[in-house]
Write a structure and sequence with these properties.
Blueprint lengths: L1 E6 L3 H13 L2 E7 L3 H11 L3 E3 L10 E4 L3 H14 L7 E4 L10 H4 L4 E7 L6 H7 L4 E6 L1 H13 L3 E4 L5 H28 L4 H22 L1 H4 L3 H4 L2 H14 L1 H28 L1
Parallel strand pairs: 1-2, 1-4, 2-3, 4-5, 5-6, 7-8
Antiparallel strand pairs: 6-7
Helix pairs in contact: 1-2, 1-5, 7-8, 11-12
Organism: Pseudazoarcus pumilus
InterPro entries: 6-PGluconate_DH-like_C_sf, DUF2520, NAD(P)-bd_dom_sf, OxRdtase/DH_put_Rossmann_dom, TM1727-like_C_sf
Protein name: DUF2520 domain-containing protein
Length: 280
Amino acid sequence: MGELNIVGCGRAARTLARLWAAAGTLTIGDVLTRSPASAAEAVAFIGEGHAAASFDDMRPAALWLLGVPDRDIAACAQALAESARVRPGDGVFHLSGFTPSAALAPLAARGARIASVHPVMSFADPGIAITRFAGTPCGVEGDAGLAAELDHLFVAIGGTPFALDGERKPLYHAGSVFASNFLVVILDAASRAYVDAGVPPETADAMLAAISRGALENVLALGGPHALTGPAARGDREVVALQQGVVSAWDADAGRAYDALSALAFALAARRDATESGAQ
């Protein structure tokens, strides 16, 4: 069993650490976050480990996880490299879906092996995430040897690893942003539109659940072009234009989103029509 040190232990990192600790796959060593209090909170959730106050307080480990936001990855890697806590041959990885492992270059220059793993799921609540992680696709890129080790570690807690191209991660990650982050934004706009149009909140919630679940099931079963319904799917540009005006008057940002999404919907409908024409 190897030992894992963690620098930056947010929702994703603490979820994974707890799963590894519970499975007996890794021993959790030192945990460093922005404050001793948050480090202690992370250790309490994980169930093992030591809350560190600084890099100087961290002991050696064969594996290091940088669970910091994208904007902090490069600076964190530089600071960790300068701390001389990482030894040649140690593995260091981060969890970003956007940033490639190359951002850890200062550590590679000191002999560390570097990689990244992006678990494709929402970690909004670690307590819930630990119950839903099994089956999660996990995109892996970086040093081949370390990537193979990480494949094993993620499989051990129910993950499904797949290989990523580090140079194409920004586009890859945009897919997750559309499928998850923007979905939340769109559903919030839908809920506000229902309520502001006079629908009782409890009825709006029921409507939102039914229509969004149905749409997702249709996309998964039929594919996007054949799952599309509504005025854009029917080519009714007049209705779309009139509705876009109403939405813009209600909420200017939502109106711009409606306009952009309508353009994508018309393009999707055109792809469906072209496919059906070609099949005849």
